[in-house]
UniProtKB/TrEMBL annotation:
<keyword id="KW-0560">Oxidoreductase</keyword>
<feature type="domain" description="Ketoreductase">
    <location>
        <begin position="39"/>
        <end position="218"/>
    </location>
</feature>
<dbReference type="Pfam" id="PF00106">
    <property type="entry name" value="adh_short"/>
</dbReference>
<dbReference type="InterPro" id="IPR036291">
    <property type="entry name" value="NAD(P)-bd_dom_sf"/>
</dbReference>
<dbReference type="InterPro" id="IPR057326">
    <property type="entry name" value="KR_dom"/>
</dbReference>
<comment type="similarity">
    <text>Belongs to the short-chain dehydrogenases/reductases (SDR) family.</text>
</comment>
<feature type="region of interest" description="Disordered">
    <location>
        <begin position="1"/>
        <end position="36"/>
    </location>
</feature>
<dbReference type="InterPro" id="IPR020904">
    <property type="entry name" value="Sc_DH/Rdtase_CS"/>
</dbReference>
<dbReference type="GO" id="GO:0016020">
    <property type="term" value="C:membrane"/>
</dbReference>
<dbReference type="GO" id="GO:0016491">
    <property type="term" value="F:oxidoreductase activity"/>
</dbReference>
<protein>
    <submittedName>
        <fullName>SDR family NAD(P)-dependent oxidoreductase</fullName>
    </submittedName>
</protein>
<dbReference type="InterPro" id="IPR002347">
    <property type="entry name" value="SDR_fam"/>
</dbReference>
Length: 283
């Protein structure tokens, strides 16, 4: 069993990166000078996969981007040709979310959208999962995300505008065998998104929760076991990025990619016995 970084979110670093977020003076810009009269998006997990594709989609519409991940060189590839600012950070490190939020707000003065894409996976029997891996999956997929939202949210509330984008998984909706901790983390994010959305009513700040099917990234291979199931078909990161952009633009609370992914969760709620029989057969 292997714990690895997600190709769509939290890649292992290719170069040495400190166990803390860099001070604002170390950030690097790409392309023309920033125009702070345009909206700002902070994207974590921006080194590749969904995070990188989402960053590029927002850049197409003139957003100022703040890109975060552990791998500076990959972040700079994502930033190439844009005015993005690269903010390498280890969100699982103590104080990582706070330092990233401080650097981001110092750099641009505001964050209009937080796209929290950092995450890792682990596959294998729960009874064989090392305790350190349990802690690390929960630390990044759940705890670090909550702490980063907590750091960014006050500035959004003060401005009376903003949106938080969180990424769930079908594993968090229905539970997937041999992905027990990952399922738990994503289920926690789903409930957190709903609770936070209700809490923020009337503040001008919204929450979008995104649940995508298998995406064509290195996520499954890097978690220690590839996903070789022929169905459902894999989705391109660009397709997910397009839906995320539309959801933010339209202020949508929840999106499933593709739409039919709402069915398993409904089946589990309405007919749990039938759902479990199907799950036992098809996994």
């Amino acid at each position: 069993m292997t714990l690895t970084g997600s190709g769509s979110a939290y890649d292992p670093p290719a170069d040495a990166v400190p166990r803390h977020s860099p001070a604002p003076s170390r950030v690097r810009e790409h392309g023309p000078a920033r125009r702070l009269n345009r909206p700002v998006a902070l994207v974590t997990g921006a080194s590749s996969g969904i995070g990188a594709a989402t960053a590029r989609r927002f850049a197409m519409d003139g957003w100022q981007l703040l890109l975060s991940g552990r791998d500076r060189s990959r972040l700079e590839r994502t930033a190439s040709g844009t005015s993005a600012v690269v903010l390498p950070a280890d969100l699982a490190a103590a104080g990582g979310p706070r330092l990233l939020a401080q650097s981001a707000l110092h750099t641009t003065g505001r964050i209009d959208v937080l796209i929290a894409g950092a995450g890792i996976g682990w596959a294998g029997p729960f009874a064989a999962m090392p305790h350190t891996d349990i802690d690390r999956v929960l630390a990044l997929d759940l705890n670090a995300t909550l702490h980063l939202v907590r750091e960014v949210l006050p500035s959004m509330i003060a401005a009376r505008r903003g949106r938080v984008v969180l990424f769930g998984s079908m594993a968090g909706c229905v539970g997937v065998r041999e992905e027990a901790v990952y399922s738990a983390a994503k289920a926690g994010l789903a409930v957190f998104a709903e609770a936070l959305r209700q809490e923020l009513r009337g503040t001008g700040v919204g929450v979008t929760f995104v649940v995508a099917g298998p995406v064509d990234t290195a996520f499954h291979a890097r978690r220690g076991r590839p996903d070789d199931r022929p169905r459902p078909r894999r989705i391109s990161p660009g397709s997910v990025a397009g839906v995320v952009w539309e959801a933010v633009h339209e202020g949508r609370d929840e999106v499933f990619i593709p739409d039919w992914l709402t069915l398993p969760a409904r089946a589990r709620a309405l007919a749990p016995g039938l759902y479990r029989r199907l799950l036992n057969r098809f996994g």
